[in-house]
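Thread title: Can someone regenerate the structure for this chain?

I was given the following input by a collaborator and told the matching structure tokens would be attached. They weren't. Posting the sequence so someone can regenerate them.
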Amino acid sequence: MTYVVTTVNVNGIRAAAKKGFVQWLATTEADVLCLQEVRAETAQLPKEIAELTGWHAYWAPAAAKGRAGVAVLARTEPSRHQIGFGSDEFDNSGRYLEIDLPGLTVASLYLPSGEVGTDRQDEKERFMAEFLTHLTELHTRAAAAGREVVVCGDWNIAHQEADLKNWKANQKAAGFLPEERAWLTRVLTEAGYTDIVRRHHPDQAGPYTWWSYRGRAFDNDSGWRIDMQFTTPGLAERALWSKVERAARHGERWSDHAPVTVAYDL
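Best answer:
Regenerated them for you:
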């Protein structure tokens, strides 16, 4: 069986629905769709999203209204879903949701963005510390059960210089700090995950997944690669292809992020 998994930060699902997300959803080849930054309670979802047919939808809004929020939509009904990862501080923050499909756990992640010198950066670091423990334990449990894992989402960290256009100017900015990049390295080494898109595009700048709405960042492809799919090693070997679904033109965008899609042969 082939699972096509897509992840995208919608930058507010109500706004995205008005800009073309619904039309995109009607044509996507994804079997599983992970959303981030939904920024809506389930009662606030647009009718065409709330009444989707052909999808099993799970939503994890944030306790802080109008912020964060993640979701997972699957064409096959999961055997289990879980909001949060056992964190007293973060389980109600709308930042993590996972489902179990046959042989595969799929998770949607919205890691805090942070801001250097503020409480937001402290929050991000606390999240990272707890989440690395969860990732490690999730991998261990999956291996024992003969399952694979893919953690999709907006990681809000560019790992390498190739992952953002203007890396020299951002070395002291949240999202490209040495300690953040070192943490992602630990996800790949200590926790044992694989960055699928980078594996498939080892020598390429990008492919970028987020572009600021300011200036001509999108037109100049001055972006960041912060939306990623990290998998357990066995699933990495079964990844058939991956792509970033970059809009053809600025005016066709329904988010400041682009969908990242990977096909897995299970």
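The chain has one domain: 2-265.
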